[in-house]
Amino acid sequence: MTEPARPTIDTLLHGLHVETDQGDIAFCGVNLIEVPDGKGGLTRIVVDTGHFGRGVALRRELAARGLTASDVDVLLLTHAHWDHVQCIQYFDNAVVYAHPEELNYISNPHPGDHATPAWTKAMLDQYDIRHVREGDELAPGVGVVEAPGHSAGTVAAAVSTADGLAVVTGDSIQNALVAQQRRNALVFWDEEMANRSVGKLVDMSDAIYPGHDQPFRITADNEVEYLVDFQVGFTGTTRDNPGLSFTDLALDPIISPAPPEWRR
Predict the structure, then answer these.
(1) Which of 34, 57, 75, 216 is most buried, taking the most CB atoms under 10 A from its CB?
(2) What backbone torsions phi and psi does residue 46 show, to the nearest 5 degrees?
(3) For 80, phi and psi rounded to 5 degrees?
(4) d(C-alpha 179, C-alpha 202), whole Å
(5) What is the DSSP string of 147-169?
(6) Which domains does the chain have, with CATH numbers?
(7) Each residue's pLDDT expressed in tens, for the chain with a length of 264 residues
């Protein structure tokens, strides 16, 4: 008997995190999961949307696949930070999911949370966002994993692909260095909880689709093996432009946890 086709993951927009002395370039990964329904059709799931500045690129990548955002059936928001949710308006036909703790939190973000603007709730309240929790299934072979700590209700998508279990992590794992060191690079809720979530996802995954990096796997020797080549272009400057400099990547976590009264 032929084995049923498994879900596939196609990265629409790769994640990127470039720190500058003028602020961060926070490009989150946007991933398309396609799940065969056994009848010749597909359920299309997108995990995160990117911020509004990436809207043109997002629609271009969908069009290159013969799709529009209206063809997406399910939208999973791993969390409600501005760089992951602003293009929600394009997904007008999708059923939208997020964790209830995340949706509760945006009603009253803590003062140190610069990733959750005060208008976040006003924006998301325009949509019928349904709750998901650990173990819920978005489609056959695509489950929800709770991975809190970076934010109050961060979740990931666990996808049973033909090559093993792939986890689309949002910012529960921002990049490969976080996975190697099992230490979250940016915490707005609870550092200990965030680091436990990193370990949980690394241990369960055969491949990781992170919040701000290219897809990768962690080998048995704790080495990083990227699944795609890195590609990004910059315009408006050149490498030899006076004042432009490049430094090595280092994990220097920014910890701005919610005060205890917010975590009750």
Answers:
(1) 75
(2) -115, 135
(3) -105, 15
(4) 6
(5) --SSSTT-EEEEEEETTEEEEEE
(6) 8-262 (3.60.15.10)
(7) 566 789 999 999 999 877 777 777 889 999 999 999 888 889 999 999 999 999 999 999 999 999 999 999 999 999 999 999 999 999 999 999 999 999 999 999 998 899 999 999 999 999 999 999 999 999 999 999 999 999 999 999 999 999 999 999 999 999 999 999 999 999 999 999 999 999 999 999 999 999 999 999 999 999 999 998 877 777 778 888 887 777 776 657 888 899 988 887
**pTM of this prediction exceeds 0.90:** yes
User: What is the C-alpha to C-alpha distance for residues 261 and 256, in angstroms, rounded to an integer?
Assistant: 14
Q: What CA–CA distance (Å, rounded) separates 84 from 124?
A: 12
Q: Which helix (H) or strand (E) holds 27?
A: strand 23-27
Rg (CA), the chain: 18
Question: In this structure, which long-range contacts are made by residues 93-96, counting pairs with CB atoms below 8 Å and at least 24 apart in sequence?
Answer: 94/46, 94/69, 95/130, 96/127, 96/128, 96/129, 96/130
Which residues, in sequence order, are CB contacts of 38 under 8 Å at separation 6+?
4
CA distances from 37 to 78, 107, 194 (A): 24, 37, 35
Residue 39 neighbours by CB distance under 10 Å: 6
Residues forming beta bridges with residue 186, ordered by sequence position: 254
- Amino acid occupying residue 170: G
CB atoms within 10 A of CB 112: 13
The sheet that has 224-226: what strands, in order across it?
A: 137-139, 142-146, 155-161, 164-170, 207-210, 216-218, 224-226
- SS3 of residue 145 by DSSP: strand
